[in-house]
Write a structure and sequence with these properties.
The complex is a heterodimer of chains A (290) and B (402).
Chain A lengths: L1 H28 L5 H6 L8 H13 L4 H33 L5 H13 L6 H10 L7 H8 L2 H13 L3 H9 L4 H9 L4 H17 L2 H6 L8 H10 L19 H25 L12
Helix pairs in contact in A: 3-14, 4-7, 4-8, 4-11, 4-13, 5-8, 8-11, 9-10, 11-14, 13-14
Chain B lengths: L3 E9 L5 E10 L4 E5 L6 H9 L6 E6 L2 E2 L10 E4 L11 H11 L4 H14 L15 H13 L5 E5 L7 H18 L2 E6 L2 H7 L2 E6 L2 E6 L1 H6 L4 H6 L6 E10 L2 E6 L2 E4 L2 H6 L10 E6 L4 E3 L10 E11 L3 E8 L7 H8 L18 E8 L9 E6 L4 E5 L10
Parallel strand pairs in B: 3-8, 3-9, 6-7, 7-8
Antiparallel strand pairs in B: 1-2, 1-4, 4-5, 9-10, 11-12, 11-14, 12-13, 14-20, 15-19, 16-17, 16-19, 17-18
Classes of the chains: A mainly alpha (290), B alpha+beta (402).
């Protein structure tokens, strides 16, 4: 009885694994093939590195290196907004978790409410607000709304209210720290794991945000990669027959698109690896009794 | 170095709990003062108020000549050792100890010198580069002490600093801390729930209960002259035996009657407790320390009162035998005794409540090791009538002078 049961379990697991992994493998292999081979050859066959290199040249040549531009824009927008998010949400979470001041509960509830609100719901009022402030079309129209990240405040709040023993902060106060240096010298260094978490989540959500920049940015030179990719899609003859006819040298086909999406994932993967390292366990080992 | 004074200090928490009620305590310069009491008695609150980590709801706190009520902890020139040690986990042992000096911008060379001194004093040299997580409990405790000492503060505040150590280490650290405090001569306020720590370490001991100060006195005085049944029951291990009794007059002499036991009060006893005369015909609580009870077969003093009982449990400790026995008398279960018994982690007095289904009161005697009494024996116990305690049955107050 045991062996068939085990086999059955293995089969089910394998089936699921194949189901989920197959598209990823296909995507990784896609840029190595020619547009025609992508359709005709076996889905999991490897083309050649030459094909991939050519796909990159086509992609890079598109609209005067605009792909690089979009990637740079995305990095600038995401990193600046994430920096603001970190500078605000870590102290805010700390204050909400350990401070005792009137209105604390209210701020906390408001944070929770706006946290569960889908970002897209605010795009229109934010557009109107930015318009009133004459920021539409500037990079701030993306960075400022991006930097509003209540989930980061919530993560920091949870971390400080559960992971940091209050005696540790009391010790700092008795040892001569004022409120700011208690935070700076004790609470902040111990918050490395949550800083890494907020950094990662904030960066990813900024990097992936499509709707807001799509609405507030007009110039394609200012697009982040998300909006850029959709722009690219619209320029592909196989997706949009209207282009590519009139003698334009648009060399964007399916392999180039696959490469564009693959490259767009790389910064997120790097950020993940970096923040992963900081999510060290045992950060607080030895602080208080175990 | 400075004296520490609390005048009418109260603390009411926002939920209405009254943690401290008009606490008056004056701690002279250089004294080792222990605050002791069961959990919830307000001792830690009092300490945190002195530290400035908690605001007093009323009253005045003075350190040295300064009123510190409105000073933040960093300006009070105090150092504190926490129950959990509260070491900074991201800093090495060296940096943990240097931390308070770095914060107060002491010159680098002086920091190095002072930390080196402290590290040497506490035998922490091999560990200076380690992080707290790589230290044992005892080492962490010493680092916490070091961080306090290096400040050279006016006052040390210690909040149950030994309660997380194992029993053996605790005894050693008890002596070490006491010695260190003697050498440094820094005024120290030490909070504990352990009456043995209180008795062995304190120059004076303040016993607290439900936010109220019961008695402040040197350990011997506390033991010999407790002001009420609570202090009497709290200080001493095993705890004082307490029986319901009454005062009667027989042939012109005053007698104490507790169940089947009755004995005449000696002249000496009456001289130091002449308030007893007023209790003629009234109920009192009779308190007998375990060491005032001895196997009558071994007691060689004539004329000692005797009491009859049944041996229940023999605990041979080596130099002595703790004999638990029952006598035909009513146990005195005052509120204080009940509270002590219910206090979690303090089961010394639970025996006082008697064993259900068994008549009489359970007493503990500290017999000499030669006692041949076995469990189940009918025994005769001699009472050292020179060291008895009497309490008002209503108020629990000790009866000394009128």
């Amino acid at each position: 009885m045991r062996v068939p049961a085990l086999t059955l379990r293995a089969l089910i697991l394998a089936a699921f694994a194949v189901f989920f992994v197959a598209p990823i493998v296909w995507l990784i292999l896609a840029p190595t093939k020619s547009d025609a081979a992508l359709v005709t050859s076996s889905p999991f066959s490897f083309g050649s590195f030459g094909n991939a290199w050519r796909a990159w040249h086509h992609l890079d040549a598109f609209s005067d290196h605009i792909y690089r531009r979009w990637m740079t824009n995305s990095l600038i927008y995401s990193l600046s907004a994430t920096a603001i998010t970190l500078a605000v949400s870590i102290p805010a979470g700390y204050g909400l978790a350990l401070g005792r001041f009137p209105g604390r509960k209210l701020i906390l509830s408001v944070t929770l409410v706006v946290m569960i609100m889908p970002a897209a719901t605010l795009v229109l009022p934010i557009f109107l607000e930015l318009n009133a402030l004459h920021l539409i079309g500037s990079m701030f129209s993306v960075i400022l709304p991006f930097s509003f990240f209540p989930f980061g405040v919530y993560l920091a709040y949870i971390y400080y209210s559960t992971a940091i023993p209050s005696e540790l902060l009391d010790a700092a106060r008795v040892d001569g720290c004022g409120e700011w240096s208690t935070f700076r010298r004790v609470a902040l260094p111990l918050a490395k794991p949550v800083v890494a978490l907020v950094f990662f989540f904030s960066f990813v959500s900024n990097w992936n945000n499509f709707f807001l920049p799509y609405v507030v940015l007009a110039d394609s030179n200012q697009y982040p990669i998300t909006v850029g990719l959709s722009n690219l899609l619209a320029s592909t003859p196989s997706f949009n027959p209207a282009v590519g006819g009139g003698g334009q040298s648009v060399n964007i086909f399916k392999p180039e698109l696959a490469l564009a999406t693959l490259l767009a994932v790389i910064p997120v993967a790097i950020v993940f690896l970096v923040s992963q390292r900081a999510l060290v366990r045992g950060m607080l080992g030895g602080a208080v009794k175990e | 170095m400075a004296r520490v004074e609390l005048e009418g200090v109260s603390k009411v928490f926002s939920d209405g709990t009254r943690a401290l009620d008009e606490l008056d305590l004056s701690i002279p310069d250089g004294e080792f003062m222990v605050l002791v009491g069961p959990s919830g008695c307000g001792k830690t609150t009092a300490l945190r108020i002195v530290a400035g980590l908690e605001d007093a709801s009323g009253g005045v706190v003075r350190i040295g000549e300064r009123v510190v009520n409105d000073l933040s902890p960093k300006n009070r020139d105090i150092a504190m050792v926490f129950q959990s040690y509260a070491l900074y986990p991201h800093l090495s042992v060296y940096d943990n100890i240097a931390f308070p000096l770095k914060i107060t911008k002491v010159p680098k060379a002086e920091i190095r010198r002072r930390v080196a001194d402290v590290v040497r004093m506490l035998d922490l040299e091999p560990y200076v580069k380690r992080k707290p997580r790589a230290l044992s409990g005892g080492q962490r405790q010493r680092v916490a002490m070091g961080r306090a000492i290096v400040r050279e503060p006016q006052t040390f505040l210690m909040d149950e600093p030994l309660s997380n150590l194992d029993a053996k280490l605790r005894v050693q650290m008890r002596a070490d801390i006491k010695k260190l405090q003697n050498e440094l001569g820094v005024t120290t306020v030490y909070v504990t729930h352990d009456q043995v720590e209180a008795m062995t370490m304190g120059d004076r001991v303040a016993v607290m209960r439900k936010g109220k100060l019961q008695q402040v006195a040197p350990p011997e005085e506390l033991y010999r002259w407790p002001v009420n049944a609570f202090v009497a029951g709290f200080i001493g291990s095993p705890a004082m035996n307490m029986l319901q009794a009454r005062v009667a007059r027989q042939n012109g002499a005053l007698e104490v009657v507790a169940g089947e036991t009755r004995f005449e009060l000696s002249e000496a006893m009456l001289a130091s407790h002449h308030g007893l005369a007023a209790y003629e015909g009234k109920p009192i609580v009779l308190g007998i320390r375990p060491e005032s009870l001895e196997d009558a077969a071994l007691a060689n003093v004539d004329g000692q009162p005797r009491m009859r009982g049944t041996a229940e449990l023999r605990e041979a400790l080596g130099p002595e035998v703790l004999m638990h026995f029952s006598v035909a008398a009513e146990p005195a279960i005052t509120d204080e005794v009940r509270e002590l018994a219910e206090d979690v982690g303090d089961d010394r007095v639970v025996g006082q409540l008697g064993v259900p289904g068994r008549a009489g009161a359970q007493l503990v005697g500290r017999f000499s090791a030669e006692s041949r009494v076995r469990e189940g024996d009918e025994i005769e116990v001699a009472i050292d009538a020179r060291a008895l305690h009497f309490f008002d049955a209503e108020s629990g107050l000790a009866i000394y002078d009128a």
